[in-house]
Design goal:
It is a single chain. The model is unreliable at about 60-70 (pLDDT under 50). It is built from ten helices and no strands. It is mainly alpha-helical.
């Protein structure tokens, strides 16, 4: 099936937020969540290894209120179908579609709802890598790459579209909402601790920005 060595060739690692290290972390989380939830790990692992192979085709500067020209999840799902169809022995059509669905449904801002346990495990593992200490590190890596400031006040009702978006804005707008969006009991348990860490970090950061500590 899909090996780590082959999957690595599909990523160019030019994006420190969605490089192959991200894929490996998601794989580790999926291997923690999937067995606990009773998922088919062959489907889950294939989906994880292929889920971001078209991330580079999505505009990293697009704001949330702007229309998408490319959806990396849908592109990756279609590409995954072709890759899996070339494997020897060839997986069943049902297996290929299960993997493709898990990939298509893994985005936070996506109309494709994870309908299977395997897709839900894929979603939760991917989202957990966006929160906690690693989530903060990724937010700042993305912010540095795109010239964002380190800190900014977030107005009430913020919709994610300000040109002054910072990692703090990303925490308020997206990262703090992730735990409530997860599907599995195992994923939610992991998320609770990671969320608590993020809340404490940004509270401390605010205090330091304001010179209180």
């Amino acid at each position: 099936m899909i090996t780590l060595e082959f999957a690595r060739t599909l990523y160019d690692d030019s994006d420190p937020v969605h490089d192959f290290d991200h894929v490996l972390r998601v794989l580790t989380l999926a291997r923690r969540i999937g067995p606990a939830e009773g998922a088919d790990m062959a489907v889950v692992e294939a989906a994880v290894l292929l889920h971001d192979i078209h991330r580079a085709d999505e505009d990293p500067q697009r704001h949330a209120d702007e229309p998408e020209t490319q959806d990396h999840a849908l592109l990756a799902a279609e590409h995954a179908r072709h890759i899996l169809a070339q494997c020897q022995p060839t997986p069943s059509a049902a297996f290929i579609e299960a993997v493709a669905h898990a990939i298509a449904a893994h985005r936070f801002r996506n109309a494709v709802e994870p309908q299977t346990l395997e897709a839900q495990v894929m979603f939760d593992a991917d989202k957990l890598d966006a929160i906690g200490a690693i989530g903060i590190a990724r937010a700042y890596a993305y912010g540095g790459r795109n010239g964002q400031r380190l800190w900014g006040e977030v107005p009430p009702g913020y919709d994610g579209s300000s040109p002054d978006h910072t990692p703090h804005h990303e925490f308020i707008y997206k990262l703090a909402r992730i735990p409530e969006r997860l599907y599995t009991d195992t994923g939610r348990a992991i998320a609770r601790e990671r969320h608590t860490y993020m809340v404490a970090f940004f509270a401390r950061l605010a205090a330091e920005v304001e010179g209180q500590v």
